[in-house]
Amino acid sequence: MMNQQPSQQPTTVPQIPLQSSQQQLPIQQSSPIQQSSNPTQSNPQPSIQQQQHLVSQKLKLFHKREVDEPDPLELVWRDCYEKIEQLLINSTENDINNSLVEKTSDASDVKTHTEITIGLLYAILISVPQSNLGAQYFKSLTFVSKDSLLTFCNLLKKMIGDKFQKLNDNPRQQVLWIINELINNNHPESESVSSITLRHIYGGNLLQKNLSLGFSMLNIFISHKAWLYNKPNFIPIVLYHYLRLIQDHINKPPPFNPSHLKEETMFCLDLLKNRFQECIVIGRDLIRLLQYLSNKTPEFEQLWKDLNSKPTSFSSSYQDISQSMRIPTPKHFLQSRLSPEMEIQVLYILKEVKFGNQKRYQQWFVTKYLMTPESESLIPDIIRYICCVYHPPNHVLCSDIVPRWAIIGWLLKHCKSDAWRNYSKLSLFLDWLYYEQKHDSIMNIEPAILLMAGSVKKYADMTIDLVEYIIGTLLETYDPQRKELIKTGIGNSFSTLLEKNVVQSLNHVFPPDFIGTALYERIKQNFHSLLTPSNQQNKPLNSSTGGINKPSPLSSSSGGFPTNNTHHQQQVKSPLLQPNSLQNSSGSIPNNKNLPQQPPQQPNLPNNSSQPFVNKPSNQPILQKSPP
Amino acid sequence: MSTFIKVNEIKPYTKNINCVFIVLDKGLPTKKKEGTIFQVLVADSSAAINMTLWDVIGEQVQPGDILRLKGGYSNIYIDLLNLYVGKTGLIEKIGEFTFPFVEAPNLSATLWNVHPDPNNPKNMVATPKIKSNPMKPNPMIQHPPQQPK
């Protein structure tokens, strides 16, 4: 089975240092060179730098500049390789195989088997693609391997997941060659190795290296169509990747080759037409992508028409696209469009960084991934990931860690083009459209409501923009044919969020004083029943407790917003975590409609975060003086 | 066996500093006779400090990089604490982004007085200046020669 979570991939070789542990355990670096004592002037030994230089010359796997440490993984792999290097270079194929078989003859000696596997993997990766050596070593490997290449594939997947982007060009090509071989052999791990490699084709990146990776992988799939057609779980994964990548390739000038777009399009249409049943497991995000493409290319426009006018021609049980819209997209599809490294960084912000301290991390993220106009197409992917893949546990919700809505707000603000901004908003609200409590997770729709609630006081334009999107776009023009269904879904979303006390009432989220009475009236028209009676009488807000910006005693004592939504995930009925239930003397499940008007809650904004969403370079002066 | 310290353990004239930190900011290059220098602000979970990097290392280092310093040293330059790699030291990038830091205290924000050690006049020692009485930097302060790698 495929394992989409790189962090959960089995690591069969414990002695290989994990990249993620580096930062926490800087002292335990395993490189023998680095543990040398600091040289003194009288020491005849080469200096640290000289030693380092000698090592670096031998390292061929990963790109290394002067400032980069020798890669710890490569040091370990190189050691394993050097143990068999002479054998590989100086012997005939037969001798190599005999010798390696002899070395691994002891079945209980797993270590040697692993070391030789690593040595051969390294040898394959660093051999020149044009030579026959890689193929010869691969043959030896299949000869020697006692676990049908399982160890080999696990090592390879770990390396691809953690370090593919660091690979030099030659090993990068060799990885593709290995994938091709695994598919040729119909190896059970061929899907999972391909999956992890597909994640490294960046969305929103038109650099030649990235385009060529996407096209190379596509060619592998096209030339192994029979293999692909026999992988029902893998078909939707590949389709999701390429439908997404096509978004980036439409109407693009050189260096993008238009014939590549054509091939990608044909490939996807073929899967959709012939393997529709497998494709629709993607659920609502399939429709999101197809709808986007239907406005961009004639091929997808036609497909979209067919899908709407004769859905049963795709599958006899397929009546309407709303069927797909009701299926929440499985997490691994959404996860797959973030590269492993990008995912680590997003998760780091959402798990470790305190609200108010996120600005530098945001800036670094932008510098790395979101600098170009075309990179904006990544933002919908990241928003889908944050809404649906990472659902913070209660202890994070209770803490002062950056909430998901704040990061989404920042990403929306980062969108410069209206087109991507609108598409990002659709990504944010996609799970609202056909929301049903029994099928959908409230955590998927929580960020949008908290973003509206958390912004309304200081950044009413954000809340207004989102409300206008709900009312003006989603309820009206988005899908006129299914207007009523969508209205029901959005109504369900609001009522679930209220019922679970994610927000206390819609009056708090949409105070007319902040969003304007005209917009408030439009909300009232559409969601009349969800507004509290007090507000419908236009009772002034906060009349009982004073200033509108003053946090309610309840919210401040319980930590404000983050605490307030702690319970909805598992419906924990702790009265301490439910402000409303404290006031509900009857002890019954709190019902917002019967509650007295409460002051709106102040999101727990730190004092120094005057602009939590806007990514502004820090203007704190750091360099008072310039040393020599 | 090298011992790693936290940034807030760096005092004036500390030798053989081993430390891991993240780069928060990078200044513009300054051309010197011996090469080009870059001032960077680095930090870990305990404190931040200014650091001087030379030439290609300075060029390659970017904000967000996690660096490991081995065998570095600290000095007072124009009243301020500053971190250096030095000729025998080594600085390497070991990762990026996923590293906790604080921006305060910034050890390079305190002003220091430099004077010879009364017990051993060959050595210099530093004492913090009183903040309410900031003195102008003394242009005569000695600075150990810096060599590019």
UniProtKB/TrEMBL annotation, chain A:
InterPro entries: INTS3, INTS3_N. Residues 111-524 form the Integrator complex subunit 3 N-terminal domain. GO terms for cellular component: cytoplasm. Residues 1-50, 531-628 are annotated as: Disordered. It comes from the Eukaryota. Residues 551-560 have a biased composition (Low complexity). Residues 531-547, 561-589, 616-628 have a biased composition (Polar residues). This is Integrator complex subunit 3 N-terminal domain-containing protein. It comes from Dictyostelium purpureum.
Automatic annotation (TrEMBL), chain B:
CDD domains: SoSSB_OBF (cd04491). Residues 118-149 are annotated as: Disordered. One of its GO terms (molecular function) is DNA binding. GO terms for cellular component: chromosome; SOSS complex. Keywords: DNA-binding. Coiled coil: none annotated. SUPFAM superfamilies: Nucleic acid-binding proteins (SSF50249). GO terms for biological process: double-strand break repair via homologous recombination; mitotic G2/M transition checkpoint; response to ionizing radiation. InterPro entries: NA-bd_OB-fold, SOSS-B. This is OB domain-containing protein. It comes from Dictyostelium purpureum.
